[in-house]
Amino acid sequence: MSGIGEGLKVIVSSDLIGADIPETVLESLQNIFPDFNCGLPEPPSFPSELNDSIADENISLENFITLLHKQAILDTALDYMSLNLNENGTNFTILRQAALSGKVSFPLPNEIPLGGLILIEIIGAGVKDWLEAATWHEGRDNIPRRVGDDLSMSPDADAVTWH
Hints:
There is one protein chain. With about 160 residues, the protein is an alpha+beta fold. The chain has helices spanning about 20-30, 60-70, 75-80, 95-100, 125-135; strands spanning about 10-20, 50-55, 90-95, 115-125. The protein has one domain: 50s Ribosomal Protein L5, Chain: A (2-Layer Sandwich). It is built from five helices and four strands. The protein has a four-stranded antiparallel β-sheet.
């Protein structure tokens, strides 16, 4: 489930602002997306007016999906990654600070956390089905889940309680 050769285009990017150290940002990106590779701007010097972005296309999602499985956050991932889903694809963010430690963590909507964000864009037909397949786990045999079902988190990331 890498997205490569599956009709999907994956773009990963992150903004560099203020005193962000480009090499550290690159390290956080490569911890989650090992094939991420792009040129870096010059390191900032004090006082910094750094305002740049780094991005790469055709990134494999294999390591990202593996981390979601290892961390057992598949239902949260399905809900969060589908919040901005439309017929052309989806986009979502993860925390750059968590990525620096090799972890995937999703920010609360409209929150700009300390440490910055990584933007992931998945473009193509069938993204909804791909997301459901990529986040599948055995528990869904007992409690089936689909994008936008009654068990999905609310748009403000509140949990839905069910019995």
